[in-house]
Specification:
The protein is of the alpha/beta class. It is built from 10 helices and 13 strands.
């Protein structure tokens, strides 16, 4: 992208954060694997080391292939391409703010993603670089802020209510078997509007057991830039302690309320309060552009971009999901395309310089 476009995108990030503040105030089959390539090297330049087979997530993860230059070229792999990390808030039948989406709007967007070859992964998987997506497909990260009741609730049969975010995701996955039913829910002190701990625990257990990620969005959803470093730590640690009580593993990701970074940027990603430490693999903004690949040299784990889900209206004419998904479809060379091999990074030769030097994974070029 040009320098001028980069400056425009920077301004757009500020606009999207402002919109967020206003909005929130309203409230395929695999072929046999080819032979192991002899010329593969690691991203850090070292020789290939033997690795045990990866442990696969049982929830919809495909078996891996072994990439070669010929195979990577065949599927047009580009694993330093851009990845859409979509940001959702409330899912309401009648929208009350610009950030809200209706169940039908969510369903339409997810079905379009499935039809265009996108496969959901969690924010944790994205941040740590565990992108296990079938060859030729594209990862997408579905993220939901605030743990709103419209995100998840169980009906009388113990199934997700169909009008909730999870209900829609599960429905789309049933229609499109390649569409992996996972997402990330960043929650505050009352996950999904539930106040008693037993109900909270039952909700997060269902989600975690079905491959969803439940993680940190601070205790009270404050603007962290207005807080001192100690208070930032308190807001993060208090929700971590709650999640631990509910049986959730330590968060590996967090989303900044309003997309607002603390004055000390490092405090958002690692720190402590009252004897409890936190250390996130990824901190997510409320940004206005697709994210760089986690394998890219310039990927910033402490400030990962997201795209607001919305149509091309007002400030969203260029900076929200409809615009960016259309842009990525029209610019396939800029989009992340998987080689289907979680142990190797496959890219066109001309992009070799964009790989992060310390990834430790083998690099296949063509």
């Amino acid at each position: 992208m040009s320098a001028s476009l980069t400056r425009i995108i920077g301004i757009a990030n500020v606009v999207v954060v402002t919109i967020a503040i206003i909005g929130l105030s309203v409230l395929p089959s695999e072929s046999p694997p080819p032979a192991r390539p002899k010329d593969a090297v690691r991203a850090d330049g070292g020789a290939e080391a033997s690795r045990p087979p990866p442990t696969l997530d049982p929830v919809g993860q495909p078996p891996g292939t072994v990439s070669t230059p010929e195979f990577a070229k065949q599927v047009k792999a580009n694993e330093v391409g851009l990845v859409p990390v979509l940001m959702y808030h409330r899912i309401l039948a009648k929208r009350l703010a610009s950030l809200d989406r209706s169940p039908s709007q969510l369903r339409k967007e997810l079905e379009k993603l499935a039809e265009q070859g996108y496969v959901p992964i969690t924010a944790r998987e994205f941040a740590i670089g565990e992108i296990r997506v079938p060859a030729g497909k594209h990862p997408v990260v579905l993220t939901f802020d605030d743990g709103h009741p419209s995100h998840f609730a169980l009906d009388e049969n113990g199934d997700p209510r169909p009008d909730t975010a999870v209900g829609v995701i599960q429905e789309v996955a049933r229609k499109h078997p390649s569409f992996r039913p996972v997402a990330t829910f960043w929650v505050n002190k009352e996950p999904f509007g539930l106040r008693d701990q037993a109900s909270q625990a039952a909700a997060v257990r269902w989600l975690v057991d079905h491959g969803y990620e439940v993680a940190n969005h601070t205790w009270r959803h404050p603007n962290l830039r207005l807080l001192k470093k100690k208070k930032v730590g308190e807001q993060i640690v208090r929700i971590e302690r709650l999640l631990k009580k509910l049986g959730v593993p330590p968060s590996r990701t967090m989303a900044l309320p309003y997309g607002s970074m603390p004055r000390t940027k490092k405090a958002a990603r690692t720190g402590s309060w009252d004897g409890t430490r936190y250390d996130f693999a990824g901190v997510f903004l409320a940004g206005a552009e697709p994210s760089l690949s986690p394998y890219a040299k310039n990927f910033d784990h402490g400030a990962i971009q997201r795209i607001q889900s919305n149509g091309k209206k007002g400030e969203c004419r260029k900076w929200c999901s409809q615009y960016w998904l259309e842009w990525l479809r029209k610019h396939p060379g800029e989009r992340y395309v998987s080689d289907g091999d979680p142990e190797r990074i496959s890219i066109p030769e001309k992009l070799r310089g964009n790989i992060g030097a310390k990834r430790g994974l083998q690099v296949i070029t063509y």
